[in-house]
Amino acid sequence: MFKELDPLLHSQLRLAVISLLIGLEEADFTFIKEKTGATSGNLSVQIDKLEKAKYISVVKTFKGKRPLTTCRITTEGISAFEKYVSNLKTYLNK
């Protein structure tokens, strides 16, 4: 039986962000933008959705006079990603 895929993680960009963060302690906005090839506006929207779902935490600071946005995956985000991968495997094993 197929299991439902988390619609929040089923978005290509949000899944890319979570996939990057799962292997890192944290990553800044510029790094994520470069790795995903996303536009700043789209990435901001998707990061906001992941933060509202408590899948990531976002800290906004300054590095000198430049803003620095740092993202970190949360325990909830790790669990959601692991469940997503597990549920996705039900589609692959049929």
UniProtKB/TrEMBL annotation:
Residues 13-92 form the Winged helix DNA-binding domain. It comes from the Bacteria. It holds the Pfam family HTH_34. PANTHER family: BSL7504 PROTEIN. This is Transcriptional regulator. It comes from Acidiluteibacter ferrifornacis.
